[in-house]
């Protein structure tokens, strides 16, 4: 099960980028949203020179799976605990 409808239509990096940013809007707090938006941007910068179509499809598949895992985890955990578990910088 994908975090948002339309995951199966994602074929290109720009589509993935937009899809993942839409997933971030579903996260419960602004802090968590900002953390994952930053991580998405960094990942796209790191992989911006990737030109192997097979590798690009692997990255897209893994990114959607990771987003699915995060969204499912948040559905099962109260917001306070999710903030602690999903944002390493928020641990005291």
UniProtKB/TrEMBL annotation:
Residues 11-68 form the Complex 1 LYR protein domain. InterPro entries: Complex1_LYR_dom, Complex1_LYR_LYRM9, Complex_I_LYR. Pfam families: Complex1_LYR. CDD domains: Complex1_LYR_LYRM9. Belongs to the complex I LYR family. LYRM9 subfamily. This is LYR motif-containing protein 9.
